[in-house]
Amino acid sequence: MKPKEIITVEDMSGVKVVHLKGHLDLETAPKVKPPLMELAKKAHCKIDLDLGETSYISSFGLSLLLQVNEQVRAVSGRLVLADLHPFAKQVFDTTQLGSVFKVYDTVEAAVKALG
Fold first, then answer.
1. Is residue 31 classed as helix, strand or coil in its secondary structure?
2. Taking the CA of residue 11 as centre, how many other CA atoms within 13 Å lie in the half-sphere pointing to its CB?
3. Hey, which of 45, 59, 65, 82 has its CA 20 to 30 A from 92?
């Protein structure tokens, strides 16, 4: 699977909306890490991760999200999650990572909150 099939980025009112599709796991996490970290390195960045089409997240995927979050915080940015796929929601509930990330029901709500 090519990275462009896994990740797309668009700008919405100054917020980088990152759409992740498919699985975020051992195979795909290394492919999406470089573009995510590039966005996360920009001072005062605002990033909304759209997980509506992310049907599976492994521990590798969770680790990547935590790394990106740490980088965003280091540059005084903000990272939120939006539109969690039911599986992703279950993972975040089970791992209690919902307390680490602010989660919004829709991409639009997340963009508005970050704006």
1. helix
2. 4
3. 45
pTM: 0.91
Helix, strand, coil percentages for the chain (3-state, nearest 5): 45, 30, 25
**What CATH number belongs to 3-114?**
3.30.750.24
Antiparallel, parallel or unpaired: β 7-12 and 15-24: antiparallel
Show me where the domains of the chain are located: 3-114
Structure token pair of residue 11: 């700008």
Give 17-51 pLDDT, tens digit per residue: 999 999 999 999 999 999 999 999 999 999 999 99
Structure tokens that stand for 81 in this block = 């999650």
